[in-house]
C-alpha cells in the first residue's frame, strides 16, 4: 500500500477528489495533507476525514525559501510518503526539494501542457483563440510545469466563455483525471491517460 502526502494552498477540491478515491482496493492511502497557508480550508476538511495535517506559513520565512522548505520537508518526511501529490499548491519548489522526491511527485495543472505553464492559463487559452482547453497531470521536475505527462483531459472552449466559466469546467475534469492517474501510478503504471 503506497502512502500519499498531498500539498494544498486553499480549499483542496483536488485533494478531496484524491482522498475520496483512495478507498477499497485502491493501491494507496492518504497519510498527510500539508499547506503553506494555516488558514487553508482544505486543512479543516482533511482533519474532518481523520487525515493528519500540517501547516507551514511561508510568510513567516520571508525570502528564506530554504528555511520554508526545510520546515515543510520535516513534516512530510515524518509521514513517510511514497508519493507526493501537489493539488493546488501555489508555491514554486526549489530544485533541491524536488530532487528528494524525484519520480515520486505529481502535479495537476489547468492547461494542456506544454501549453501555458504558470498562471492565468484559462485567460491565456481564450486570448489565443484555442478551441480546446483542459488539464494535465505530470511528474514534477525542477522545471516549472514540466516533466513526463501522465494524463490529460480536454474541455471544449465554448462561445462566450470567460476565464471563470472555462476554469469551472476544467476543474470538473481535474477531479476525474487526478484520481485516475494516481490509482494507475500507485500501482506502478506510468502509461499516460487521456480522458475525453
From TrEMBL:
Instruction: Name the positions where (6R)-10-formyltetrahydrofolate binds.
Output: 65, 107
Which InterPro entries does this entry report, sorted A to Z?
Formyl_transf_N, Formyl_transf_N_sf, GART, GART_AS
Enzyme active site: 109 (proton donor)
Q: For this protein, what is any one GO molecular function term?
A: phosphoribosylglycinamide formyltransferase activity
GO CC list: cytosol
Site annotation (Raises pKa of active site His) points to: 145
Q: Where does N(1)-(5-phospho-beta-D-ribosyl)glycinamide bind?
A: 12-14
**Pathway noted in the entry:** Purine metabolism; IMP biosynthesis via de novo pathway; N(2)-formyl-N(1)-(5-phospho-D-ribosyl)glycinamide from N(1)-(5-phospho-D-ribosyl)glycinamide (10-formyl THF route): step 1/1
Q: Which reaction does it catalyse?
A: N(1)-(5-phospho-beta-D-ribosyl)glycinamide + (6R)-10-formyltetrahydrofolate = N(2)-formyl-N(1)-(5-phospho-beta-D-ribosyl)glycinamide + (6S)-5,6,7,8-tetrahydrofolate + H(+)
Give a yes or no for keyword Ion transport in this entry.
Answer: no
Which function does this protein serve?
Catalyzes the transfer of a formyl group from 10-formyltetrahydrofolate to 5-phospho-ribosyl-glycinamide (GAR), producing 5-phospho-ribosyl-N-formylglycinamide (FGAR) and tetrahydrofolate.
**Protein's UniProt name:** Phosphoribosylglycinamide formyltransferase
Q: Which organism is it from?
A: Gemmobacter fulvus
Amino acid at each position: 500500500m503506497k502512502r500519499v502526502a498531498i500539498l494544498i494552498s486553499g480549499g483542496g477540491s483536488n485533494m478531496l477528489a484524491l482522498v475520496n478515491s483512495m478507498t477499497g482496493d485502491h493501491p494507496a492511502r492518504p497519510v498527510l495533507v500539508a499547506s503553506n497557508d494555516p488558514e487553508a480550508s482544505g486543512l479543516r476538511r482533511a482533519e474532518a476525514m481523520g487525515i493528519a495535517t500540517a501547516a507551514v506559513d511561508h510568510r513567516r520565512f520571508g525570502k528564506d525559501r530554504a528555511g520554508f522548505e526545510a520546515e515543510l520537508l520535516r513534516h512530510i518526511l515524518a509521514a513517510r510518503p511514497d508519493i507526493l501529490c501537489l493539488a493546488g499548491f501555489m508555491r514554486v519548489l526549489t530544485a533541491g526539494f524536488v530532487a528528494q522526491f524525484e519520480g515520486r511527485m505529481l502535479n495537476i495543472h489547468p492547461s494542456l501542457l506544454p501549453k501555458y505553464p504558470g498562471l492565468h492559463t484559462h485567460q491565456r487559452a481564450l486570448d489565443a483563440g484555442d478551441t480546446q482547453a483542459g488539464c494535465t497531470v505530470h511528474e514534477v521536475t525542477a522545471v516549472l510545469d514540466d516533466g513526463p505527462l501522465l494524463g490529460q483531459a480536454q474541455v471544449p472552449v465554448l462561445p462566450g466563455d470567460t476565464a471563470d466559466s472555462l476554469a469551472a469546467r476544467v476543474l470538473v475534469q481535474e477531479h476525474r483525471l487526478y484520481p485516475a492517474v494516481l490509482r494507475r501510478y500507485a500501482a506502478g503504471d506510468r502509461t499516460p491517460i487521456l480522458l475525453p
